[in-house]
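Sequence decides. Our protein:
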Amino acid sequence: MRQTTANRPGRPAVLMPVMGALAASVALPFAFAQTAQQGPLQALHDEREVRLTNVRQITTLGGYAEAYWSNDGKRIICQARRGDMKADQMFVMNADGSNERMVSNGAGRCTCGFFLKGDREILYSSTCGFHPEPPAPPERSQGYVWPVWNSYAIYRARADGSRARPIIPRRVVAGQKTAYYAEATVSADGKRVLFTSSMDGDLEIYSMKPDGTDVRRLTHRVGYDGGPVFSPDGSMIAWRAWYPQSAEERSEYLSLLARELVRPSRMEIWVARSDGTNPRQITKLGGASFAPYFTPDGKSVVFSSNHHDAAGRKFDLFMIHLDGTGLEQVTHGGEFDCFPMFSRDGKRLVWCSNRNGPSRHTDVFVADWVSTRASGQ
């Protein structure tokens, strides 16, 4: 699940689950960021953003997170909170932001939506089977933490939200927690699904078939593994991770996890073969780097990070080669740019940002991707 900060006019920033990539508790690191200043943020497109052209803002209501393309590039699935909703729900809209409609049932808390091959069905995580009321956010006394609720299950449904049923765990019983199941993403050929789970007592990366069968564990190290994605050809995966470096860090991590929490102040980007072998860390930046997605050629990864900001409040998109070289800053806008995803044809990038507005609302943006930089840029 992931989370974002929803800033409403006249109110301080509030951390609210935006599930998805980042693991099943979509905590938008934007929440790391600011709470204070109000006033206009940067414009729609900064001249330094040479990888992006034809930038357009397709939503204006704010509160969005984890916006991801359908396979044909005609629709986008995302999580958002509207009106008197108590928590995020799943929405589908056209690629230009029109015809937005809720596709979850309005109960519980939802995060991490993704289209299956053919675009007739979707996956998303929800706590609705555990209880119709959403779980309460963590107490502020625990510091900045992300919830990884053991009441999340991964659901499969038609693209209009009908016929939703849990696929892992297969059976959800009201009032009975199992483990954290979230952050599902699908390979381009539609044959495998990656997800994050605590089913074995730690947050690990797994793969399965789209019907929830043939579950395979891919990571085997104590620590926070989450937000996995496939490379375009399905041969590799990328994810965010943090591993304890001392007995004290390990003890704190496991103590928080027992309370269904993680502290995401430090995360790096890792890659491996699609079966989990040959894992290697490709960023060593410090700070929080997360939400990776492979570039269309499969040779690099785009991700969000705050490593460049001493205060840790500003998140931008960066790109790095799979060998850990060639770090390049992609965005320079607003104070929060995150959740990048390329369309299957590799021509467009969708992401969430709080740029181009009079408030701190996070909206959905789309741009054409420039794969080759001009000389001198």
User: Anything to note?
Assistant: The CA atoms of residues 318 and 330 lie 5 Å apart. The domain at 3-36+73-305 is CATH 2.120.10.30 (Neuraminidase).
